[in-house]
Amino acid sequence: MNTPNRSMPLRHALTVPAEGSAVRLARETAQMVLAEWGVNPGHPAVDPALLILSELVTNSVRHAAALAPTVTVVFAGGADCLAFGVHDRHPDRPSLHEAAAGSPGGGLGTVMELTHGLGGSAVVRGDADGQGKSIWITLPL
């Protein structure tokens, strides 16, 4: 799983079974990690970041669980930004461009709307063997 290119010395990883409880565990872990890193829970990027994370983990559980028994979330942080990647071993790679152009209101459309609204970026990175992918979100703090 590739990590973001920016200098982000803070790291934390979580791997959970690809089942419904993964979403709650990912959110709780994100809240814990952000608190440990000194990010104010009232920061305007925190709630949208948690929603984005929830949508991405939900998508992995819904669409990849048959081929990917686990979901991994990697959190990375630096002085002025937060990044997280949601990884599964399903080979299908969603089109973030199409999601951004589509109608908002659910799934990747919501992810893209929130990410761009915060001045962030999103990218899909495939595994070297072509059998998995990560969706990375980077948000300014």
UniProtKB/TrEMBL annotation:
<dbReference type="GO" id="GO:0005524">
    <property type="term" value="F:ATP binding"/>
</dbReference>
<protein>
    <submittedName>
        <fullName>ATP-binding protein</fullName>
    </submittedName>
</protein>
<dbReference type="InterPro" id="IPR050267">
    <property type="entry name" value="Anti-sigma-factor_SerPK"/>
</dbReference>
<keyword id="KW-0547">Nucleotide-binding</keyword>
<dbReference type="InterPro" id="IPR036890">
    <property type="entry name" value="HATPase_C_sf"/>
</dbReference>
<keyword id="KW-0067">ATP-binding</keyword>
